[in-house]
Protein backbone atom coordinates (compact mmCIF):
# COMPACT_ATOMS: atom_id res chain seq x y z
CA UNK A 1 0.00 0.00 0.00
CA UNK A 2 1.33 3.40 -1.00
CA UNK A 3 -0.02 6.44 0.87
CA UNK A 4 0.09 10.18 0.37
CA UNK A 5 -2.11 13.25 0.19
CA UNK A 6 -4.43 14.09 -2.69
CA UNK A 7 -2.29 14.98 -5.70
CA UNK A 8 0.93 13.48 -4.31
CA UNK A 9 1.30 11.24 -7.38
CA UNK A 10 0.17 7.87 -6.02
CA UNK A 11 -1.51 6.65 -9.21
CA UNK A 12 1.44 7.56 -11.42
CA UNK A 13 3.77 5.83 -8.97
CA UNK A 14 1.60 2.70 -8.83
CA UNK A 15 1.48 2.52 -12.61
CA UNK A 16 5.26 2.83 -12.83
CA UNK A 17 5.75 0.20 -10.11
CA UNK A 18 3.28 -2.12 -11.85
CA UNK A 19 5.12 -1.73 -15.13
CA UNK A 20 8.46 -2.37 -13.41
CA UNK A 21 7.27 -5.63 -11.83
CA UNK A 22 5.50 -6.73 -15.02
CA UNK A 23 8.67 -6.17 -17.04
CA UNK A 24 10.44 -8.31 -14.44
CA UNK A 25 8.06 -11.17 -15.25
CA UNK A 26 5.79 -10.86 -12.23
CA UNK A 27 1.99 -10.76 -12.26
CA UNK A 28 0.60 -7.57 -10.76
CA UNK A 29 -2.90 -6.44 -9.74
CA UNK A 30 -4.05 -3.13 -8.30
CA UNK A 31 -6.75 -1.84 -5.94
CA UNK A 32 -7.91 1.78 -6.05
CA UNK A 33 -9.97 3.57 -3.41
CA UNK A 34 -12.30 6.57 -3.28
CA UNK A 35 -15.11 8.20 -1.33
CA UNK A 36 -17.38 7.97 -4.40
CA UNK A 37 -17.98 5.86 -7.49
CA UNK A 38 -16.55 6.45 -10.98
CA UNK A 39 -12.86 6.93 -10.26
CA UNK A 40 -10.46 8.41 -12.81
CA UNK A 41 -7.60 6.35 -11.37
CA UNK A 42 -9.39 3.07 -12.06
CA UNK A 43 -10.11 4.04 -15.66
CA UNK A 44 -6.56 5.28 -16.13
CA UNK A 45 -4.93 2.09 -14.84
CA UNK A 46 -7.30 -0.20 -16.71
CA UNK A 47 -6.67 1.74 -19.92
CA UNK A 48 -2.97 0.98 -19.41
CA UNK A 49 -3.79 -2.73 -19.38
CA UNK A 50 -3.62 -3.51 -15.66
CA UNK A 51 -6.00 -5.68 -13.65
CA UNK A 52 -7.75 -3.31 -11.25
CA UNK A 53 -10.41 -3.58 -8.58
CA UNK A 54 -11.98 -0.56 -6.86
CA UNK A 55 -13.16 0.00 -3.29
CA UNK A 56 -15.57 2.95 -3.31
CA UNK A 57 -17.71 4.76 -0.76
CA UNK A 58 -15.09 5.19 2.00
CA UNK A 59 -11.44 4.60 2.75
CA UNK A 60 -9.88 1.13 3.07
CA UNK A 61 -10.12 1.45 6.85
CA UNK A 62 -13.91 1.71 6.73
CA UNK A 63 -14.23 -0.84 3.93
CA UNK A 64 -11.63 -3.26 5.26
CA UNK A 65 -13.65 -6.39 4.53
CA UNK A 66 -14.35 -5.19 1.00
CA UNK A 67 -10.63 -4.49 0.50
CA UNK A 68 -9.78 -8.04 1.55
CA UNK A 69 -12.57 -9.39 -0.66
CA UNK A 70 -11.29 -7.46 -3.70
CA UNK A 71 -7.77 -8.74 -3.13
CA UNK A 72 -9.05 -12.29 -2.77
CA UNK A 73 -11.04 -11.88 -6.01
CA UNK A 74 -7.88 -10.73 -7.77
CA UNK A 75 -5.93 -13.61 -6.26
CA UNK A 76 -8.47 -16.13 -7.57
CA UNK A 77 -8.80 -14.60 -11.04
CA UNK A 78 -5.31 -13.29 -11.75
CA UNK A 79 -3.05 -15.17 -9.31
CA UNK A 80 -0.83 -12.09 -8.94
CA UNK A 81 2.58 -12.20 -7.32
CA UNK A 82 1.82 -8.86 -5.72
CA UNK A 83 -1.03 -6.42 -5.25
CA UNK A 84 -0.48 -2.65 -5.22
CA UNK A 85 -3.07 -0.61 -3.32
CA UNK A 86 -3.77 3.13 -3.27
CA UNK A 87 -5.83 4.51 -0.33
CA UNK A 88 -7.89 7.70 -0.49
CA UNK A 89 -5.58 10.70 -0.32
CA UNK A 90 -7.50 12.36 2.51
CA UNK A 91 -7.19 9.36 4.86
CA UNK A 92 -4.69 8.56 7.58
CA UNK A 93 -4.30 6.18 10.56
CA UNK A 94 -3.87 3.37 8.03
CA UNK A 95 -1.25 1.48 10.01
CA UNK A 96 -3.67 0.89 12.90
CA UNK A 97 -6.74 0.27 10.73
CA UNK A 98 -5.44 -1.54 7.63
CA UNK A 99 -1.84 -2.74 7.95
CA UNK A 100 -2.08 -4.16 11.47
CA UNK A 101 -5.42 -5.96 10.79
CA UNK A 102 -3.96 -7.43 7.58
CA UNK A 103 -0.98 -8.76 9.48
CA UNK A 104 -3.01 -10.05 12.43
CA UNK A 105 -5.94 -11.58 10.55
CA UNK A 106 -4.44 -12.51 7.17
CA UNK A 107 -0.73 -12.90 7.91
CA UNK A 108 -0.70 -16.43 6.51
CA UNK A 109 -2.23 -15.28 3.24
CA UNK A 110 -0.48 -11.95 2.62
CA UNK A 111 2.96 -10.56 3.24
CA UNK A 112 2.56 -6.81 3.84
CA UNK A 113 5.30 -4.56 2.48
CA UNK A 114 6.76 -1.55 4.34
CA UNK A 115 4.45 1.47 4.21
CA UNK A 116 5.80 4.33 2.09
CA UNK A 117 4.02 7.70 1.96
CA UNK A 118 4.50 10.15 -0.90
CA UNK A 119 5.20 13.77 0.02
CA UNK A 120 3.37 16.37 -2.09
CA UNK A 121 5.68 19.40 -2.49
CA UNK A 122 3.11 21.98 -3.68
CA UNK A 123 1.18 21.90 -0.40
CA UNK A 124 3.77 20.20 1.79
CA UNK A 125 6.27 23.04 1.66
CA UNK A 126 3.66 25.55 2.78
CA UNK A 127 2.34 23.25 5.51
CA UNK A 128 5.74 22.40 6.98
CA UNK A 129 6.74 26.06 6.86
CA UNK A 130 3.66 26.73 9.01
CA UNK A 131 2.57 29.47 6.64
CA UNK A 132 -0.60 31.29 7.80
CA UNK A 133 -2.21 30.51 4.45
CA UNK A 134 -0.97 27.05 3.50
CA UNK A 135 -3.86 26.43 1.14
CA UNK A 136 -5.82 24.37 3.65
CA UNK A 137 -7.11 24.92 7.16
CA UNK A 138 -5.08 23.64 10.14
CA UNK A 139 -7.48 20.69 10.43
CA UNK A 140 -6.85 19.56 6.85
CA UNK A 141 -3.12 20.15 7.32
CA UNK A 142 -3.38 17.92 10.41
CA UNK A 143 -4.28 15.00 8.11
CA UNK A 144 -1.31 15.77 5.84
CA UNK A 145 1.09 15.68 8.81
CA UNK A 146 -0.43 12.54 10.34
CA UNK A 147 0.05 10.70 7.04
CA UNK A 148 3.77 11.39 7.31
CA UNK A 149 3.87 10.49 11.02
CA UNK A 150 2.94 6.86 10.31
CA UNK A 151 5.21 6.35 7.28
CA UNK A 152 7.99 3.77 7.29
CA UNK A 153 9.59 5.97 4.63
CA UNK A 154 8.71 9.40 3.24
CA UNK A 155 9.08 9.66 -0.53
CA UNK A 156 9.58 13.17 -1.87
CA UNK A 157 7.87 12.96 -5.26
CA UNK A 158 7.86 15.30 -8.27
CA UNK A 159 11.61 15.93 -8.27
CA UNK A 160 11.33 17.00 -11.91
CA UNK A 161 9.17 19.97 -10.80
CA UNK A 162 11.46 21.22 -8.01
CA UNK A 163 14.22 23.79 -8.28
CA UNK A 164 17.42 22.86 -6.39
CA UNK A 165 16.74 25.48 -3.69
CA UNK A 166 13.20 24.17 -3.18
CA UNK A 167 14.44 20.60 -2.90
CA UNK A 168 17.10 21.58 -0.36
CA UNK A 169 14.53 23.41 1.75
CA UNK A 170 12.06 20.55 1.50
CA UNK A 171 14.63 17.93 2.52
CA UNK A 172 15.66 20.11 5.46
CA UNK A 173 12.05 20.63 6.60
CA UNK A 174 11.11 16.96 6.31
CA UNK A 175 14.31 15.98 8.12
CA UNK A 176 13.61 18.36 10.99
CA UNK A 177 9.97 17.29 11.40
CA UNK A 178 10.54 13.53 10.89
CA UNK A 179 14.19 12.93 11.83
CA UNK A 180 13.86 9.17 12.38
CA UNK A 181 12.01 8.40 9.13
CA UNK A 182 14.02 7.43 6.02
CA UNK A 183 13.68 9.92 3.18
CA UNK A 184 13.61 8.85 -0.47
CA UNK A 185 13.54 11.11 -3.52
CA UNK A 186 11.66 10.25 -6.69
CA UNK A 187 9.97 11.47 -9.83
CA UNK A 188 7.14 9.11 -10.69
CA UNK A 189 6.80 10.87 -14.03
CA UNK A 190 10.40 10.26 -15.19
CA UNK A 191 11.24 7.17 -13.14
CA UNK A 192 14.10 8.85 -11.30
CA UNK A 193 14.55 7.20 -7.91
CA UNK A 194 12.18 4.30 -8.63
CA UNK A 195 14.90 1.71 -7.98
CA UNK A 196 15.37 3.02 -4.44
CA UNK A 197 11.62 2.82 -3.78
CA UNK A 198 11.49 -0.75 -5.09
CA UNK A 199 14.44 -1.70 -2.91
CA UNK A 200 12.71 -0.23 0.14
CA UNK A 201 9.37 -1.92 -0.55
CA UNK A 202 11.09 -5.30 -0.79
CA UNK A 203 12.69 -5.02 2.66
CA UNK A 204 11.56 -7.40 5.38
CA UNK A 205 11.54 -6.66 9.09
CA UNK A 206 9.73 -4.53 11.63
CA UNK A 207 7.62 -2.24 9.46
CA UNK A 208 4.04 -0.98 9.59
CA UNK A 209 4.17 -0.53 13.35
CA UNK A 210 3.73 3.22 13.83
CA UNK A 211 0.40 3.46 15.64
CA UNK A 212 -0.75 7.09 15.65
CA UNK A 213 -1.90 9.17 18.56
CA UNK A 214 -4.73 10.78 16.60
CA UNK A 215 -7.75 12.94 17.34
CA UNK A 216 -10.60 11.56 15.22
CA UNK A 217 -12.68 14.71 15.74
CA UNK A 218 -9.99 16.88 14.12
CA UNK A 219 -9.40 14.22 11.47
CA UNK A 220 -13.10 14.03 10.57
CA UNK A 221 -13.54 17.81 10.52
CA UNK A 222 -10.45 18.22 8.31
CA UNK A 223 -11.76 15.68 5.79
CA UNK A 224 -15.23 17.24 5.82
CA UNK A 225 -13.78 20.57 4.71
CA UNK A 226 -13.10 19.04 1.29
CA UNK A 227 -15.76 19.09 -1.39
CA UNK A 228 -15.77 15.82 -3.36
CA UNK A 229 -17.16 15.45 -6.87
CA UNK A 230 -17.16 12.60 -9.39
CA UNK A 231 -19.05 13.04 -12.63
CA UNK A 232 -19.12 11.48 -16.09
CA UNK A 233 -20.18 13.12 -19.34
CA UNK A 234 -20.23 12.73 -23.10
CA UNK A 235 -18.72 15.40 -25.35
CA UNK A 236 -19.69 15.56 -29.02
CA UNK A 237 -18.62 18.01 -31.72
CA UNK A 238 -19.31 18.56 -35.38
CA UNK A 239 -15.61 18.57 -36.23
CA UNK A 240 -12.60 16.88 -34.59
CA UNK A 241 -11.09 18.51 -31.52
CA UNK A 242 -7.76 17.90 -29.76
CA UNK A 243 -8.65 15.89 -26.68
CA UNK A 244 -5.53 16.81 -24.70
CA UNK A 245 -6.05 20.53 -25.32
CA UNK A 246 -9.68 20.30 -24.22
CA UNK A 247 -8.76 18.52 -20.96
CA UNK A 248 -6.19 21.18 -20.11
CA UNK A 249 -8.59 23.97 -21.03
CA UNK A 250 -11.22 22.61 -18.63
CA UNK A 251 -8.67 22.51 -15.82
CA UNK A 252 -7.44 26.04 -16.53
CA UNK A 253 -10.98 27.41 -16.35
CA UNK A 254 -11.68 25.48 -13.16
CA UNK A 255 -8.47 26.60 -11.51
CA UNK A 256 -9.23 30.26 -12.20
CA UNK A 257 -12.88 30.10 -11.18
CA UNK A 258 -12.14 28.13 -8.01
CA UNK A 259 -9.38 30.57 -7.04
CA UNK A 260 -11.87 33.44 -7.46
CA UNK A 261 -14.25 31.56 -5.13
CA UNK A 262 -11.46 30.96 -2.53
CA UNK A 263 -11.53 27.23 -3.18
CA UNK A 264 -8.15 25.55 -2.69
CA UNK A 265 -7.59 22.66 -5.09
CA UNK A 266 -6.34 19.45 -3.48
CA UNK A 267 -6.57 17.50 -6.75
CA UNK A 268 -8.49 17.72 -10.01
CA UNK A 269 -8.31 14.78 -12.42
CA UNK A 270 -9.85 14.32 -15.86
CA UNK A 271 -9.72 11.29 -18.11
CA UNK A 272 -10.93 11.52 -21.69
CA UNK A 273 -11.72 8.25 -23.47
CA UNK A 274 -12.04 7.74 -27.21
CA UNK A 275 -12.59 4.48 -29.04
CA UNK A 276 -8.88 3.68 -29.24
CA UNK A 277 -7.15 6.36 -27.16
CA UNK A 278 -7.27 8.08 -23.80
CA UNK A 279 -5.74 11.11 -22.10
CA UNK A 280 -5.41 12.10 -18.44
CA UNK A 281 -4.90 15.61 -17.07
CA UNK A 282 -4.27 16.77 -13.49
CA UNK A 283 -4.17 19.89 -11.37
CA UNK A 284 -2.64 19.47 -7.91
CA UNK A 285 -3.09 22.93 -6.37
CA UNK A 286 -4.62 26.32 -7.11
CA UNK A 287 -1.13 27.74 -7.64
CA UNK A 288 -0.05 25.00 -10.06
CA UNK A 289 -0.33 24.63 -13.82
CA UNK A 290 -2.51 21.87 -15.30
CA UNK A 291 -0.49 18.99 -16.69
CA UNK A 292 -0.99 15.93 -18.86
CA UNK A 293 -0.03 12.74 -17.07
CA UNK A 294 -1.08 10.67 -20.10
CA UNK A 295 -1.21 12.31 -23.54
CA UNK A 296 -3.68 10.88 -26.05
CA UNK A 297 -2.44 12.91 -29.05
CA UNK A 298 -5.91 12.27 -30.43
CA UNK A 299 -8.33 14.36 -32.46
CA UNK A 300 -11.89 13.19 -31.92
CA UNK A 301 -15.47 14.14 -32.69
CA UNK A 302 -16.71 12.48 -29.49
CA UNK A 303 -15.24 11.44 -26.15
CA UNK A 304 -16.35 10.21 -22.75
CA UNK A 305 -14.99 12.24 -19.83
CA UNK A 306 -14.73 11.44 -16.14
CA UNK A 307 -14.04 14.31 -13.73
CA UNK A 308 -12.82 13.81 -10.16
CA UNK A 309 -12.54 17.02 -8.12
CA UNK A 310 -11.23 17.38 -4.56
CA UNK A 311 -11.41 21.00 -3.47
CA UNK A 312 -11.75 22.85 -0.17
CA UNK A 313 -15.12 24.34 -1.05
CA UNK A 314 -18.82 23.57 -0.62
CA UNK A 315 -19.63 20.55 -2.84
CA UNK A 316 -22.74 22.21 -4.27
CA UNK A 317 -20.67 25.16 -5.45
CA UNK A 318 -18.01 22.76 -6.71
CA UNK A 319 -20.57 20.98 -8.89
CA UNK A 320 -21.69 24.33 -10.33
CA UNK A 321 -18.10 25.33 -11.05
CA UNK A 322 -17.34 22.04 -12.80
CA UNK A 323 -20.43 22.22 -14.99
CA UNK A 324 -19.76 25.83 -15.94
CA UNK A 325 -16.10 25.14 -16.79
CA UNK A 326 -16.97 22.11 -18.92
CA UNK A 327 -19.81 23.86 -20.75
CA UNK A 328 -17.76 27.01 -21.41
CA UNK A 329 -14.86 24.94 -22.74
CA UNK A 330 -17.14 22.87 -24.95
CA UNK A 331 -18.70 26.05 -26.33
CA UNK A 332 -15.22 27.30 -27.27
CA UNK A 333 -14.61 24.03 -29.12
CA UNK A 334 -18.05 24.10 -30.79
CA UNK A 335 -19.00 20.99 -28.87
CA UNK A 336 -21.79 19.94 -26.51
CA UNK A 337 -21.63 18.19 -23.15
CA UNK A 338 -24.19 15.71 -21.83
CA UNK A 339 -23.70 14.96 -18.14
CA UNK A 340 -24.42 11.54 -16.70
CA UNK A 341 -24.09 10.30 -13.14
CA UNK A 342 -22.78 12.90 -10.68
CA UNK A 343 -21.87 12.50 -7.02
CA UNK A 344 -20.96 15.51 -4.90
CA UNK A 345 -20.39 15.21 -1.16
CA UNK A 346 -18.32 15.92 1.90
CA UNK A 347 -16.58 12.83 3.32
CA UNK A 348 -18.28 11.40 6.38
CA UNK A 349 -16.62 10.65 9.69
CA UNK A 350 -14.19 7.72 9.43
CA UNK A 351 -15.45 4.65 11.29
CA UNK A 352 -12.79 1.94 10.89
CA UNK A 353 -13.80 -1.72 10.79
CA UNK A 354 -10.79 -2.51 13.00
CA UNK A 355 -8.36 -0.36 14.93
CA UNK A 356 -5.37 -1.86 16.71
CA UNK A 357 -4.13 0.21 19.65
CA UNK A 358 -0.74 -1.54 19.66
CA UNK A 359 1.37 -3.17 16.99
CA UNK A 360 1.05 -6.94 16.76
Summarize the structure in words:
The protein is an alpha/beta fold and 360 residues long. Helix content is 38%, strand content 26%. The strands form 3 sheets. Strands 11-10-9-12-8-13 form a 6-stranded antiparallel sheet, with helices on both faces. It has a 4-stranded parallel sheet with strand order 1-5-6-7, with helices on both faces. Strands 3-2-4 form a 3-stranded parallel sheet, with helices on both faces. α5 crosses α7, α6 packs across α9 and α10 packs across α11. The longest helix is centred in the C-terminal third of the chain and has 18 residues. The protein starts with a strand and ends in a 15-residue tail after the last strand. The mean pLDDT is 95.
Q: How big a fraction of the residues is strand? A: 25-35%
**What would you call the shape?**
globular
Rg is 20 Å
Poorly predicted segments: none
Strand order of the largest sheet: 11-10-9-12-8-13
Assign a percent range to the helix content: 25-40%
Mean pLDDT across all amino acids = 95
Structural category: alpha/beta
Order of helices and strands: EHEHEHEHEHHEHEHHEHEEEEHE
**Total E-strand runs:** 13
Quickly count the helices. Answer: 11
Largest sheet entry: 6 strands, antiparallel
- Determine the N-to-C terminus distance: 18 Å
Q: What's the short story on this structure?
A:
This protein has 360 residues and is an alpha/beta fold.
Could you give the topology of this structure?
Layout: E1 2-4, H1 10-23, E2 28-34, H2 40-47, E3 51-56, H3 64-78, E4 82-85, H4 94-106, E5 116-119, H5 121-128, H6 138-149, E6 153-156, H7 164-177, E7 183-185, H8 194-201, H9 216-224, E8 227-242, H10 243-260, E9 264-273, E10 278-283, E11 291-294, E12 299-312, H11 315-332, E13 335-345
Parallel strand pairs: 1-5, 2-3, 2-4, 5-6, 6-7
Antiparallel strand pairs: 8-12, 8-13, 9-10, 9-12, 10-11
Helix pairs in contact: 5-7, 6-9, 10-11
